[in-house]
Design brief:
Layout: E1 11-18, E2 34-38, E3 49-53, E4 62-73, E5 80-84, H1 91-102, E6 107-110, H2 115-137, E7 141-146, E8 149-153, E9 156-160, E10 164-169, E11 172-176, E12 181-187, H3 189-198, E13 204-209, E14 215-216, H4 221-227, E15 233-239, H5 247-255
Parallel strand pairs: 3-5
Antiparallel strand pairs: 1-2, 1-4, 2-3, 4-5, 4-6, 7-10, 8-9, 10-11, 11-12, 12-15, 13-14, 13-15
Length: 257
């Protein structure tokens, strides 16, 4: 097996032979990312070195980007590259992009394990993604920077103080935390009970008081909401960064906007 670690952080040009939304030539599978190879290279299987392209939501013919991850397979003779326009993703987020094929192998994701570098690239990624989303929906949205927000870590809420891009789209706030994207909307009590009865949300979410920020959870959640003094109830849905391409569809489905 050829070790591809030396490609990490290098700029490469990928020739796309299986573009986004194309069908696999042999299996019943649609590609959720662009997939291609580096011309003139040799991988462990004797063919060119293959690469997944992430962070792009249109079919491509070629792509110039940075190798931000290596997919290492224990049960195959061919490793893969993960290529993007910029760094700033966790191992878990990268795996979600490539698991449509890697789930059939014993695979691990290797990245540059450096917290300072990750924070630097993550903040730049947040800036770009939030601006791109705002420019896409700017006729019906607002854009602001907030210097504080509560974040839930290890079952506790902490107040974080740094500029958080927040876009408001038809009464839904879309914010960009370090770890996840949050989508937030407020309801009255009757509306939130209806929401809980009718919605199936494929992501982690939290129900909390609009004034106290007290979380409602567990078997008595609906009873606790009805007995509370809160006038409005907030819902925050947390989406990982690997779902960025589907964010508007998710917002419309989850919050009926």
């Amino acid at each position: 097996m050829k070790d591809l670690t030396s490609y990490l952080n290098k700029e490469v040009i990928i020739k796309i032979d299986r573009p986004l939304n194309s069908k696999h030539p042999e299996h019943d599978m649609i590609y959720p990312v662009n997939y291609g190879y580096i011309e003139g290279t040799i991988s462990g299987d004797g063919k060119e070195i293959d690469a997944y392209i992430i962070g792009v939501d249109v079919p491509l013919e070629t792509f110039r980007g940075i190798v931000i991850g290596i997919v290492k397979r224990e049960d195959d003779n061919e490793d893969k590259l993960i290529v993007a326009a910029e760094k700033g993703y966790t191992k878990e987020e990268l795996y979600e992009y490539v698991k449509f094929t890697e789930q059939y192998f014993i695979s691990t994701i290797h990245i540059e394990d450096d917290l300072i570098s990750f924070m630097h690239f993550r903040l730049n990624l947040i800036k770009r993604l939030s601006r791109e989303l705002f420019n896409t929906i700017k006729e019906t949205s607002e854009y602001g920077l907030y210097d504080f927000n509560y974040i839930k870590l290890n079952q506790h809420h902490y107040l974080q103080y740094y500029q958080i891009p927040v876009i408001t789209y038809q009464s839904v706030d879309i914010g960009f935390n370090i770890d996840k994207i949050f989508i937030e909307k407020f309801y009255n009590k009757a509306e939130i009970i209806h929401w809980l009865d009718t919605k199936v949300v494929p992501f982690e979410y939290e129900i909390y008081g609009g004034e106290s920020c007290c979380s409602f959870e567990g078997e008595t959640m609906i009873e606790d909401i009805l007995n509370s003094e809160e006038r409005i109830i907030g819902v925050s849905v947390y989406m990982p960064y690997n779902n960025m391409n589907q964010i508007m569809t998710s917002i419309k489905t989850i919050f009926d906007v």
